[in-house]
Amino acid sequence: MAVVSASLRLNLQSSLFSDGARPIVVTPNNAEAAARDRTAAHADIVMTGEDAVDLQSALRQLHSRGVRLVVCEGGPLLLAELLAGGVVGKLCLTVSPLLVADPVRLLPAGALAQPAALRLAHVLEDDGHLFLRYLLGRPADQGECSIDPARCLVCLSSRSHTLAVATRRDRLAVHLLDEDDYELSLLFGEQTGDEVDKFAACDRQEEHGVPACRY
After folding, report:
1. Residue 10 contacts residue 25 (beta carbons within 8 Å)
2. Which of 9, 128, 189, 203 could bridge to 97 as Cys pair (CB 3.0-4.6 Å)?
3. Is the peptide bond before 23 cis (omega within 30 degrees of 0)?
4. Are 142 and 132 a contacting pair, CB within 8 Å?
C-alpha cells in the first residue's frame, strides 16, 4: 500500500500503519522535516519532487522496489495529476442507479487541456450497478500509432521454447485475437507444448509457409 501526501497530515494510529506490512508514503522533498520523521517511524518514505510529488518519478521508484502494477484510488486532484503525467493506462468507473442533485466531478475544472480518449474494454452489471473498465488511448496523430504503414513488434522470452524455433525462421505469424478467439487464447496461453499438441487441437492453414490457426 502506498499513500501520496504532500502535507503528511496522516492518522498514524490507523490500522493502515499498524496492521500488516509497512506502507509506503510518497511525499515531496520539501515536506516538513518533523512530520516526515514521525511518518518514517510507521512507514517507508519515498521522496520525489520539490513543492509537489513527482508522480512519474514516484512510479519509477516503486518499480525499482518490485511494484509492477499500481491500482490508484484517489480524488479528482490526484487523478488529474496522473492523467497529466501520462501514466494512466486504465480507468475503472462505477455507475450507480441513483440520481443526485449535488455536482459529481471526476476531475477539477480545467484539468485536461483536451479530452482524453477512452476505449471501453469491459462491462459488468450487478443489481443495476455498472462496473466499467476503460483503456486510455492517445490521439491518432501521436506516438507509435502514427507509423504508416503499421509495424508489429514481436517479443519472445529467452526462456520460451518458441525463441529457438523463431530464430531459425525468416517470418512469423502474429495472431491478433478478439472476443471470438477466447478458446484459442486459452489453448496457446494456458497449455504447454510439452503436454499438448496445440496445432492438432485447432484448424490451421498455411500462409507463406507459416501456420495460421482457427479454433
Report:
1. yes
2. 128
3. no
4. no
pLDDT tens readout for residues 65-93: 888 788 888 888 888 888 888 888 899 99
The cell numbers describing 2, all together, are 502506498
- Model pTM score: 0.57
CA gap 122, 141 in Å, rounded: 26
Lowest-pLDDT range of 7-16, 61-70, 82-91, 181-190: 181-190
Q: Which long-range contacts (CB under 8 A, 24 or more apart) does 16-25 make?
A: 17/42, 17/43, 18/42, 24/62, 24/65
Q: Which cell is 63 given?
A: 518499480
Average pLDDT over residues 89-104: 86
Q: Give the C-alpha distances (Å, rounded to integers) separating 70 from 89, 118, 131, 187.
A: 10, 19, 19, 29
In the structure grid, which three cell numbers stand for residue 46, read together?
519515498
DSSP E strand boundaries for 51-163:
90-95, 118-126, 129-136
Rounded distance between C-alpha atoms, residue 120 and residue 118, angstroms: 7
Give domain limits for the chain: 1-7+17-70, 72-146, 152-214
Query: Which CATH number does the domain 72-146 belong to among 3.40.50.970, 1.10.10.10, 1.20.1530.20, 3.40.430.10?
Result: 3.40.430.10
Strand, helix or coil for residue 102: coil
Q: Are 148 and 185 in contact (CB under 8 A)?
A: no
